[in-house]
């Protein structure tokens, strides 16, 4: 596995942990709200987020 990929995955874990550490109550409320959103909408939002991330990654490199 390339070092860059492992580094990126580690950074994701750090950022996720930061949200849980800084605002656990808000994170729990958000998780409850996400349960009420239909799966199709979540898939669309996920696809948009992946696309934005790939565009941003391309711009950085």
From TrEMBL:
<keyword id="KW-1133">Transmembrane helix</keyword>
<protein>
    <recommendedName>
        <fullName>DUF2065 domain-containing protein</fullName>
    </recommendedName>
</protein>
<keyword id="KW-0812">Transmembrane</keyword>
<feature type="transmembrane region" description="Helical">
    <location>
        <begin position="44"/>
        <end position="60"/>
    </location>
</feature>
<dbReference type="Pfam" id="PF09838">
    <property type="entry name" value="DUF2065"/>
</dbReference>
<keyword id="KW-0472">Membrane</keyword>
<dbReference type="InterPro" id="IPR019201">
    <property type="entry name" value="DUF2065"/>
</dbReference>
<feature type="transmembrane region" description="Helical">
    <location>
        <begin position="6"/>
        <end position="23"/>
    </location>
</feature>
């Amino acid at each position: 596995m390339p070092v860059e990929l492992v580094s990126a995955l580690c950074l994701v874990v750090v950022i996720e942990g930061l949200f849980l550490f800084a605002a656990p109550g808000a994170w729990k409320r958000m998780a409850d709200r996400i349960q009420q959103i239909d799966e199709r909408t979540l898939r669309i939002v996920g696809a948009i987020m992946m696309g934005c991330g790939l565009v941003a990654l391309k711009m950085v490199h």
